[in-house]
Amino acid sequence: GLRVAKHGNRSVSSRSGAADVLESLGVKISITPEQAAECMEKCGMTFLFAQCYHGSMKYAAVPRRETGLRTVFNILGPLANPAHAEGMLLGVYDKLLIGPLAKVLMNVGVKSAMIVYGDDGFDEVSISDRTSVCEIKDGKTKKYELDPRDYGFTLAKKSDVVGGTAKENAKITLDVLNGVKGPKRDITVLNAGCALYVGKLAEDIHSGIAMAEKSIDSGAALKKLNMLKEFTNSFGENQE
User: Fold this and answer.
1) Do 239 and 28 contact (CB within 8 A), yes or no?
2) In this structure, which of 13, 104, 184, 233 has its CB flanked by the most CB atoms within 10 Å?
């Protein structure tokens, strides 16, 4: 499968961040860089908790939380990923950012990427509207619109895929990995398919979607989450 290094933090401008959801799923998020590297080696995926790598960012957390607004800090996380991944699926909160962010990613060595903005306001590939994309491929950028209907999906209501608290999002994650059908699974496999495409494991997005569906339906995706949970909890004292 595709090796994934997710760099994230706790929630600031939304109800739950990646760190909050993973923690609710039982994953130990506060691990050292050395443990994170070991996790990548053993599990093929790892979570890089921003607070363990960029201590100065914590000083922006309070004002960000108080304003409740999305700012440049919402896109600094992926750009500051310590793993220096050459492939990336990056969601942004403003359509005007997809082009400039593509140039930034190319400047920091990213070889293959999709910078996406759901036209319904989602900072990911949407299942309830078209998605504006700027793709990095072969040293060039290309802008286009992605319509989920072109990939066999039925347009969903935005309210059907909006997340909630960390606990609610953890339940959604487990439901999807346990094979529950519906819009939440659809948006998961569509985004996973795009990630597999930019990660060059899939020839195109269609193939990536098929691979993502197979991973869920075979139980491999859930097995991988459980492996991540067990491995991270095998480490010693919490580093947070």
Assistant:
1) no
2) 184
